[in-house]
Automatic annotation (TrEMBL):
It comes from the Bacteria. GO terms for molecular function: acyltransferase activity, transferring groups other than amino-acyl groups. It holds the Pfam family Acetyltransf_1. InterPro entries: Acyl_CoA_acyltransferase (IPR016181), GNAT_dom (IPR000182), YpeA/RimI_acetyltransf (IPR050680). The keyword Transferase applies. This is GNAT family N-acetyltransferase.
Length: 136
């Protein structure tokens, strides 16, 4: 997927936080530790630095949810991160994103901390970010 394709899918999939732009995807993919794992209508983007992996975003087209695409991308992210020497994976998720939280819980992520008011909703409200992690 090109940065343009990623930005379009991300915009369709994300309610909050604001979706990444084409430029943001281009810049993230230029990082030497970047990992992009794709499936038709879904992707996971992260990076590996030393022995840590960070999942930056994961997206599934709304019309293709519930088919295991997100889980497949997440599993592929774990495998690719482990292959690059990562021992642990981290991510942030909006506290009110029940679907993502269920995905991460099923994949073995534990709650490590909370960033109060980290995300901004379109109406100006704030939502906490949960910091999650798991061993790889």
């Amino acid at each position: 997927m090109s940065p343009r394709d990623l930005a379009r899918l991300h915009a369709r999939a994300m309610a909050m936080p604001p979706p990444f732009s084409e430029t943001a995807f281009h810049d993230l993919l230029a990082h030497p530790g970047a990992l992009l794992l794709t499936r038709p209508n879904a992707f996971a983007l992260g990076r590996v630095v030393l022995d840590e992996a960070e999942l930056l975003t994961i997206a599934t087209h709304p019309e293709h949810r519930g088919r295991g695409l997100g889980r497949a991308c997440l599993d592929a992210f774990h495998d690719a991160a482990r292959a690059r020497g990562a021992a642990r994976a981290f991510l942030e998720v909006a506290e009110n994103n029940a679907a993502a939280r269920a995905l991460y819980a099923a994949a073995g992520y534990d709650h490590l901390g909370t960033r109060r008011g980290y995300y901004r909703e379109p109406d100006g409200g704030a939502v906490d970010a949960l910091v999650l992690g798991r061993d790889l």
